[in-house]
C-alpha cells in the first residue's frame, strides 16, 4: 500500500470534494467532507451508524484501539450529516451501501473501505497526489498542528501515543521543523 499524504492547502481540499462528487458519486464526497472533520480511521468512519450520533456528538468505540471516541461535531460535520440523513432517512449507516439495498434479505451494510480507496485513488491520480483513505485524518492533523503548533493536541485528537508517529503521520518534516527554528527569533 502506497504512503498517502496530508493535503496541505484549502483549494485542493475543495477540489478533491468536487471531483469525488462528479467523478465518483456524492456519497464519496460526503465521506471526504465528514472524514476531514472527524479525523477517524476509515474503518471507524465507515462503521458510523446514525444511532451513534447524539445531538452534537459522535460516540463510537474505535475498532483498532478499543477506546471510546466521544467527538463533538463541528458545524460543517453536522451540516453534512444532516444532508445525508435528509437524503436517506431510512439508512442505518451514515455511509450505507446502495448495493445492499438491492439485495432483499440482507441487512444494511456500510460502503466498503475498498470502494472508498478506489474512488480516492482515482481522484488522486487525476490530481497527481498520493490520496488515500488516511488522507482525511492526516489532513485534519496537519491543519490542527499548523494552527496551534501544539503537537500534544494533535496527538490527543488522533489518539496517538508517540510524538514521532504523529509528526510522520501529518507530514511534518525535519526541514519544516528547522525552518521554524530559523524563522522564530525571540
From TrEMBL:
Transmembrane segments: none annotated. Keywords: DNA integration, DNA recombination. Pfam families: Phage_integrase. The keyword Endoplasmic reticulum does not apply. PROSITE patterns: TYR_RECOMBINASE (PS51898). It comes from the Bacteria. Gene3D superfamilies: Intergrase catalytic core. One of its GO terms (molecular function) is DNA binding. InterPro entries: DNA_brk_join_enz, Integrase-like_cat_sf, Integrase_catalytic, Tyrosine_recombinase_XerCD. Residues 2-182 form the Tyr recombinase domain. GO terms for biological process: DNA integration; DNA recombination. This is Tyrosine recombinase XerC. It comes from Vibrio thalassae.
